[in-house]
Amino acid sequence: MLMSEGSNKFLGDFGFDWITLRGWNAPEFVELSLLANPAVPINFNDLRNRYRFVDGASGWDLDDHIAGSNNILCSPLDGRLECLHPGMELQVGTPPVQVPAVGVPGQVNFRGGSGAAKIAGLTALMNAFGPTLLTSPADPAGFKGVGFMGGDILLGGLGSDILEGKQGDDLIDGDVWLNVQLRAVLNDGTIKLVDDPRLLADDVFADPQRLNPGNISIIRTIVTPSPQPPPDCGAVQPLNCDTAVFSNTRAEYDIAVNANGTVTVFNNPAKLMGGHLSDGTDILRNIEQLRFSDITIPTPKPLDTVPPVKGLTLAAATTAILNAGLTVGTVGSANSTLFHIGTVMFVNPLEGTVLPASSPVDLTISLGTITPIVVGVPLGDANTAKTAINIILENGLVVGTITQQSSTTVPAGVVISQSPVSGLTV
Length: 426
Prior knowledge:
By secondary structure, this protein is mostly beta strands. It has 3 domains: 215 residues, no CATH class; 63 residues, 2-Layer Sandwich (Trypsin Inhibitor V, Chain A), CATH 3.30.10.20; 57 residues, no CATH class. It has 4 helices and 25 strands. A 7-stranded mixed β-sheet has the order 2-5-9-11-18-17-16, with no helix packed on it. A 6-stranded mixed β-sheet has the order 3-6-10-15-19-20, with no helix packed on it. The protein has a 3-stranded antiparallel β-sheet with strand order 13-12-14, with no helix packed on it. The longest helix is centred in the C-terminal third of the chain and has 10 residues. It is elongated, with a radius of gyration of 33 Å. It starts with 8 loop residues before the first strand and ends in a 32-residue tail after the last helix. About 2% of the residues have low confidence.
């Protein structure tokens, strides 16, 4: 379902139903807990949108407020309207099937589909939250089949969004959003994607007709914005500061950073104060702040370890750092007697340091060593300090070919010349 002008009633009922703000030109407050009762007339003193059994909500490009419902999995089933019933869970499902386009050889339309697979990218998103969410076993009470039905799925999109799960076990992502478009196969084989059916009217009613309306498909996609502004919660007007809101005080929640980078916020029943209802357990992605009733805190980040990269090339070190969940910071260079030209000689913070995810790691790349001055120095040996051989070895070099030559000005055993000359980087 898409937002539209005026006061609306969005009736999802059975199945896992969505509303998206794609294309809506103003910040919006989607409040899924405002129930829409079909038999109740609209109150013209309260023209807010109403919702019934809408399970997923998505923002778009602006600073939206997305609030979930209080629909929870009742156990045992007690007949309350806000309890979820069989057939409302989000299952694995099947993707839309391709069928031949009408009168356009070689082209196809997309029809049908069900569950998470009906929306391109939703299965991957569910797996990012937790790989078993779509395949969890049926509820032992018998009123929930296999699939996700613990709460709502709330998506923010671009902008600095406020996302509030309320009751239930909700999934919240501050960045991705749900896109819905019409895909038209024109009679000449051209594919046309539009956001509004009115943009296809001229093609349908053209003479000769350019588009058979039977060649229009609905395409649903989970979109990851790119480029995404960096988090900037300290800015006067932040561009990317998504906030997850919780009803109770910070002391009533347990917060855990998961291995996959998500954050779990658990409203611990043992810590509840004042007899209020629990927010359940929410799983968060791409959220910059957690707002409780008494305090707002930065979202904890997963910790990653600086990998061993000394001696690696810059390219290899960059790959290792990115694979560790960190980023490459400042890259400098310096001479080194220990590391070959073009390899990492220094890492800051040191290898093995534990850092928040995406923290920068600075690297210093070796320029190689500088050839020392050994002309006029006794040849000596490796164990005798301040002799030519000892100086060469201390600078990370090896002694090459030694030749002897008579001289009337240089004493015996003293170096007459060297190659390469001193002061070169090698």
